[in-house]
Amino acid sequence: MDCQTCQKHLAEVLRAERPRRLLEAIQQGLSGKAKGGGDGKEEGTEPVLEPGGLRLVCQTCPRQGPAAAARAYLEAPPPGVVLCANRLGSRREVEEAVVHELVHAYDYLVAGVELLDCQALAYSEVRAARAAECSKTSRSLVCSYFRKNCARSTAVRSTEGLFPGKGAGCVDAVFNAAYQDQRPHDDGGR
Q1: Average pLDDT score over the chain
Q2: Would you kindly state where each structural domain of the chain is located, as residue ranges?
Q3: Which of 28, 74, 128, 182 could form a disulfide with 100 if both were Cys (CB 3.0 to 4.6 A apart)?
Q4: What is the DSSP string of the chain?
């Protein structure tokens, strides 16, 4: 997909319920921190992000480096989501990537998760996979098994990208707790 098509899909996706709700939760969480919500800042300080301030952009991503295989990634500072247009093939994939990265943005910006720690990243990867790539499966007991396996394998692949040889162990250590954590919304991963 080219960057122009990606940007068109991104504009549509940002009007969809799941991405919109995640962006609202990020903005509310940051506003709460700025009003003395316990992050150590003085009351009345400005939030890290202004409303609508989380930059989301499509670009052609390189074939080397930490994002070599990524469809999208969270960058900071300043906080932003980069969608790799050259690795996305449809509007559905753009939406999955946006939801996935917005879960990471929530974890990093609002919940204070340190994404450069293997277990913390694994925790966020499980949550992001459950909310995005692995969210369309039926909730029946049989499909729940496949959905959990999808979240586990997706999280392992993603975590191994930054922590080669350690990702699977980190995912295993946090999987059950992370899979149950549906912040900011208890929406069943829909």
Answers
A1: 85
A2: 1-112, 115-190
A3: 128
A4: --HHHHHHHHHHHTTSHHHHHHHHHHHHHHHHHHTTSSSSPPTTPPPSS-TT-SEEEEEPPPSSSTTTT-SEEEETTTTEEEEEGGG--SHHHHHHHHHHHHHHHIIIIIS---TTSHHHHHHHHHHHHHHTTT-SS--SHHHHHHHHHHHHHHHHHHHHHHSTTTHHHHHHHHHHHHHH--TT--STT-
